[in-house]
Amino acid sequence: MGPKLKLRVIGGLFSVALALMCGSASAEVGVTDDTIKIGMFGPLQGKVSLYGYPINNGPIAIYKEINETGGIHGRKIEIVHEDGDCNPQKTAAAVKKLIHQEKVFMIHGGSCSGAVFGGIKEIKDTGIPFMIMAATMDKLATPAVHNIFRPALSGSADGMVMLEFLATMPGVKRIAVVRHSNDWANAKSSKFMAQIASRGIEVVSDEEMERKATDATAQVLRHKKVKPDAVATFLYPAEAALYTRDAAKYGLDVPILGTNSVMDLMDLKKRAGGLGPVKNFYSAAFVQAPMGDFKTAAYRALMTKHFPDDRPQSLNLYGMGGAYAILEALTRAGRDLTREGLISALETLDGTHAGPMTCKLRFTKDQHEGCVGGTMWTLSADGNSIIDVGAAYRAVK
Fold first, then answer.
1. Of 54, 56, 202, 270, most Cβ neighbours within 10 A?
2. What is the pLDDT of residues 162-202, one digit of tens each?
3. Backbone phi, then psi, for 60, in 5-degree steps?
4. Half-sphere exposure of 323 (CA within 13 A, CB side)
5. Domain span holding position 98
6. Is-cis flag, bond preceding 59, omega within 30?
7. Residue 6 within a domain
8. Residue 274: CB atoms within 10 Å
């Protein structure tokens, strides 16, 4: 082999190696020629697992459906799960594992606000795109953070859905309030409390209830003494059920309102010991109707198709809006997919289909809260189904 030929061969090999190196360097983390790796986390075991797979499986059903049609630009969605256990420290560890070990392209997860906040620093620091699943604490996404998006109601918006509904309830002029003394409850109740007087409603009693309380007698009796027209609760499901049970026990027979954390009213009924304590309970919701309603028939069919061994439930609907936003943004971002490209595409969504949610999604560079409206749910008279009452009060029983 002559010197010139040797040089040409060596030069050619160097060019190939350089191309391979550049191609490797430019490839986005979590993206291959035929897959996009999305991380999910949530409470996957134990008592709080109710808010894990049931919620996560809703988006997964949508991702499976799109995979069956060939994916997005020829790439299929691959899901990687980690258990955050509704615990800030465990969630922080789960987020770090997804980012640094599993090397996911983006994360779509989180239903427990306090736990999600535990992982937020790592998400912010790395800049990985993060679509919040169902966590509502305002400071997770407000003010806007470049790489964090929320399709569901924020905490303060959740509280305002309750307030506007209360303002339309006939004869409601005096209310009692019971809430947890934590950031989650403060996010949901602060704007509510600041604006309630402007709706002509007086707060006649404001009580606190600790997490994992086993008795609500003191709060209920103090409320009963001031004779409110209704009660607003800013409580997690277990404590909301405890309050309604003791309200029924001590004869506090008025409408009780709860946040979207208790919009699974079938679960609330079970926790409270039957229909009696929750027969006059209303919960805020960010999906237009519960599972089983004709409005959600298509999503029920989707769950039955992809998770035939599971019972379709309203929890499946919670994260679907985020999945539709992600798929639309991935489509807009094109084949040359990057994290920054996805973020930019998300910021162009305006009126995007959000599945079973109450509104279409809109994100901008300065607004990463995709939906600011909601509705209210209650149980049917026989307690066997959930009814979408609407944003304003109407008699349905």
1. 56
2. 999 999 999 999 999 999 999 899 999 999 999 999 999 99
3. -60, -40
4. 26
5. 35-153+295-366
6. no
7. no
8. 12
